[in-house]
Task: structure prediction
Amino acid sequence: MGMMHFRDKLPLTWCLVMQLSCILHQTSSVDWPEEQSRKESLSPVDPDSKMIPEEQLRKEIPHTSDGGLASLDTNKCKPNTPFIWCLPQDYNQEKHPFTYFHLVNKSLPWDYAFRFVIEEISNINDKSQTMSISMYFAVSWLEPRLKINESATEWSEARTGPANEVNESPEILKYIWYPELEIYGLDTFGRQRVLKEMSGVRIIKNKTITYELGVRITISCRMNFDDYPLDAHTCQFQVGSYYDTHETVTCSSFFIYDLDRQRSLQHFIQIESLPSEFKVMELPSGIYAACGFQVRLQRKQMQFLVQVYLPSFMFVIVSWVSFLIKPEVVPGRMALLVTLFLVLINIFNSVRENAPISSRLNAIDLYLVVCIFLVFGALMEYAVILLLLKKRRKPMRTIDQGLRHLFAASNGAAAVPLRDTNTREMLVTYANNKAVITEAVQNAQHEQRQLTGEGYYTGQISKPPDVGLSVRKQALVDNIDAWAMWISPPMFIFWNICYWIAYRPWTDKLSY
Result:
């Protein structure tokens, strides 16, 4: 019975042992907090750890075409390895190539060669005095430390570039020395991109390196707008070494410009070689060699001739018509002159708003000011005539004389002095009658036609009283319009001849 009881309890004991074993195994696989922290501090994925994960390391190491690991410095020469060109093992990117001029039997100064393939002058901003240029910018320099494998077939294969040249990625400039350049008067420098940056490097068999890239450059241009809009300007694009003076580095350049690809701008454009006086830059730090090209600009003038000069010329001529209008026609003559004056003022304000800043009154402002002055002169001439005509309207009778004349005209009696107060009041009352006043006015008009002077018709011709204008001044009023009509046209024509001869807009200023 005892044996049977032990066998019945054996499976239960075995299950307890197995459960205890599982618990102990789980406990041994769990680290204490201190141990877990120590392991995490040594983990390769720890962001603060100095260790690089193995997977990341394998990705960053360059691979060869067969999947093997390549050297980290792929531009250095390696023994028993075929190459087109390579750099010596002791190559120092910080050292200038001209320090090794003995390797190519060459002396200082070192030479930089520039090539500018100009697409177009894309913008000329008069307000900011800048010019934007789209072009391909290339610079070449000799690197005597290059190792060239002249027997490599790539020098003669067209797929790698022109003969004796191989194309390389711009990334190799991370391992090769390249010059520090300065563009004088640079405002902005933008690299052109499509999917990637439009640039490339060419290694030439004679150890010359050429770096070329597509750029959009904006440079400042000193412009003088005193002759605006009959102005012309010259702008220089100059580039040279940033550190090295002309004793160490010189340069040469040439440009290619296709005028047919140039968009229409407000200027005629001509590009020429950089004059010799601009090939040297004298700065406080030294004298530097400069290369580049010069751009000549001449503003297109037809738009201004049609929109500003011709209307202003015509308005001045129209103002002379006022001299043919009788001075008594005040509304018509005054409206004509005031309208022309205000229109010219409006044109002047519009031109000034769009014109660039100048050191003095520019050409178009000067022309408009003279036109405004001529119209203003015609207006002042008419104002003088009106002033003289106002004197002519001086009353020819006093109040007593007028009432006496009205009374005499209505009763047919001789005029008597109105010294009696009662009689004066009676006449005033009588004059207020509408019908009598109307008849008196008609009689006065009839009598006025019978006057031979400024006296009253009494059957005898009397000497006119000396009122209003004198005979001499009356002649001046009658002839002042004729004088203005004869003086204004010759004066305006003479001014135009002097103006256009001085500015000579018909000359080709680009050829100077």
Q: What stands out?
A: Residues 226 and 300 are 16 Å apart (CA to CA). DSSP finds ten helices and 15 strands in the chain.
